[in-house]
Design goal:
Layout: E1 9-16, E2 20-23, H1 24-34, H2 36-39, H3 46-50, E3 55-58, H4 71-96, E4 106-111, H5 120-128, E5 135-140, H6 146-159, E6 164-172, H7 184-192, E7 195-203, E8 214-223, E9 231-236, E10 239-244, H8 248-265, E11 274-279, H9 284-294, H10 302-311, H11 318-327, E12 334-341, E13 345-352
Length: about 350
């Protein structure tokens, strides 16, 4: 275990979305145009209500998505909107942490929903005026698990001597809609996916600044055997086509209790010590599966449900929105932040408020 003086701490957390906020009821109506064959069976549209989402942010006005768009066009929108969002959020995170851009020693950018080479961290360094000698860690492909994994890597960098780390997660999942593809995965993704980002500053505790929001006590990663088909992208001419192949709630019910116990035991903790659970809301059935697997009390995942209701599933950024929501209640004691994603994998981060 690390000594108390070397424990990384969170100094700031900022979340945000693109400007186009759309009600779930409007997206349901648009689905009639996007999925005419499936909409002909009205009960299938129930997925939009069953998702328990009220509104979502999109990178473009809703009508933009009703036309066919190629991968190049969608990815150009991704780069434009992602750059704007991470610049705004990064600047605010630095201001809240009372740091200048030139103070930053390392930059992490997590995303999965678009491609950029040079990577987005290079743009962020240039746009904010961060030192050109800052360490760069772009992380791509972890999907919904990326928010937790990125937080763990930020803590690792602080432990390694990079005392001030700017970490950003940005996902524009709405741009992965493939018009004309009436597969179940594309249909369900249209009912869930949305756009958003988060920026955090993680530092060594001896760095001057505002009182820490929490300390980062450790992390635990699990790659599940023979699980590649569960979730991911199929790269097609029209873009990144979402793939869901198995029952993720069943997987959560079957493995999560033991996996959480292993994660906590690796750091000398037990589930009985955990007061706050911060869980990526992949969907209402996934949250119910977590509650069942971990035998959580009613209300334990209220922050996750609120973020799902207000924002939808923003892939890696979502669990950071949940953390932001949980912080509003002024929690105390030990906490566990958890997310699952392509691989198929589980990521846990141990926190203490």
């Amino acid at each position: 275990m690390s000594s108390a003086v070397s424990l990384p701490v969170l100094r700031s957390l900022v979340t945000g979305t693109p400007p186009h906020q759309v009600a779930q009821s409007e997206i349901k109506e648009a689905a009639r145009t996007l999925f005419p064959r499936m909409a002909a069976r009205p009960h299938l549209l129930d997925v939009f209500g069953n998702a328990q989402i009220e509104s979502r942010a999109l990178s473009r006005p809703l009508e933009w998505y009703l036309e066919s768009r190629g991968f190049g066009e969608k990815n150009a929108v991704f780069i434009e909107q992602a750059r704007a969002l991470i610049t705004r959020l990064g600047a605010e995170a630095l201001a809240r942490a009372e740091l200048r851009p030139t103070d930053i020693d390392a930059v992490i950018v997590v995303n999965t929903s678009g491609l950029s080479t040079p990577s987005l961290d290079a743009w962020l360094i240039e746009s904010l005026g961060i030192s050109r000698h800052a360490a760069r860690l772009p992380v791509w492909g972890l999907g919904c698990a990326g928010g937790a994994a990125g937080l763990a890597r930020a803590a690792d960098l602080v432990r390694a001597g990079f005392k001030r780390v700017l970490y950003v997660a940005v996902e524009l999942c709405s741009l992965t809609l493939v018009k004309g593809d009436e597969s179940k995965s594309n249909f369900v993704g249209t009912a869930l996916f949305s756009d958003g980002g988060a920026a955090l500053v993680v530092t060594s505790p001896d760095v001057p600044g505002p009182p820490p929001l929490l300390s980062l006590r450790g992390a635990y990663s699990t790659l599940i055997e023979n699980s590649e088909d569960i979730m991911g992208w199929d790269v097609v001419d029209d873009g990144l086509k979402v793939r869901f192949s198995r029952d993720i709630p069943s997987l959560v019910r079957g493995m999560m209790r033991g996996n959480v116990a292993e994660a906590l035991a690796a750091h000398g903790w037990t589930q009985e010590e955990i007061i706050t659970f911060i869980v990526h809301p992949g969907g209402v059935k996934v949250l119910a599966a977590y509650e069942e697997a971990l035998d959580l009390p009613v209300g334990a995942l209220d922050s996750s449900r609120k973020v799902l209701r207000d924002h939808g599933n923003m892939s890696s950024a979502t669990v950071l929105f949940v953390l932001d929501e949980a912080l509003k209640a002024g929690p105390q004691g030990k906490a566990l932040l958890s997310a699952m994603g392509p691989g198929f994998s589980a990521e846990h981060v141990l926190l203490e408020f």
